[in-house]
Specification:
mainly beta, SH3 type barrels, Porin, 2 domains, 5-stranded antiparallel beta sheet, 1 helix
């Protein structure tokens, strides 16, 4: 008798945890999809949605019933994150992001950018300069929506990114770029994400070698593909 009670208790606990983690998906023959918790199946199937609405369907109206993971997508991320990035305004960067809402994020970052300049001096000799610059950047992100990809078991976001920065050091630079941004979380890893950005960009570089006889300066204008990969940790 005692074993039977423990077995019944274990089955009940498993059923409760399963029902909390998964929700039913009713696919109707007319193409509609209703998601929620099925509370009864006789004589009709009655389902309760997340907003408390009740819907009743007969078996002839239903194409199929599926189960999908019932995730609270608002748990993924938080109001503040820091990370490490490659690309963007430099080779490597340290970004800090503030998230006033799930759709908006504002970013500040420091980027390191090296450069090689080959300059011909007053006497016609070519000299190679290896210089470095630290770029101070700002950015804004707007995410269109957050959804769970069942096949890949990832929470994903897509949106638009805008970035700009100014650099100083061995050379001066200004850059701007933006375009599409994609962010993803692995299932159950609420506080760690990966982002990828891709779009058009522009870089202006000013270099003034101090050892040239005629004190010449050089300006470079480049249209580029802005890209950046970034790992984020949320607090």
């Amino acid at each position: 008798m005692r074993k039977f009670i423990f077995l019944l208790l274990g089955i009940s606990i498993h059923f409760i945890s399963f029902s909390q983690e998964y929700q039913s998906v009713i696919c109707l023959k007319n193409g509609s999809v209703i998601k929620g918790e099925i509370i009864t199946q006789e004589p009709n199937i009655i389902i309760r949605t997340s907003d408390g609405q009740l819907y009743s369907f007969s078996s002839i109206e239903i194409e199929q019933i599926l189960q999908e993971q019932n995730l609270n997508l608002s748990e993924y991320g938080s109001n503040f994150s820091y990370g490490i990035s490659f690309g963007g305004g430099g080779i490597i960067g340290v970004p800090i992001r503030f998230h006033p809402s799930e759709k908006f994020a504002f970013e500040m970052n420091l980027n390191y950018r090296p450069a090689v300049f080959k300059i011909k001096n007053y006497w016609g000799d070519t000299k190679t300069y290896y210089e470095h610059s630290i770029i101070y950047g700002l950015g804004a992100k707007y995410f269109i929506g957050k959804y769970f990809k069942e096949k890949r078991q990832k929470v994903k976001l897509n949106g638009i990114s805008l970035n700009a920065g100014i650099g100083m050091g061995g050379f001066d630079t200004v850059y701007a770029g933006g375009g599409w941004i994609h962010e993803s979380f692995k299932n159950k890893r609420y506080k760690k994400s990966f982002t990828f950005e891709l779009g058009p960009g522009f870089i202006y570089t000013h270099f003034n070698p101090s050892d040239l006889y005629d004190d010449s300066s050089y300006d470079y204008y480049e249209l580029i593909f802005h890209w950046k990969v970034q790992w984020n940790w949320f607090k």
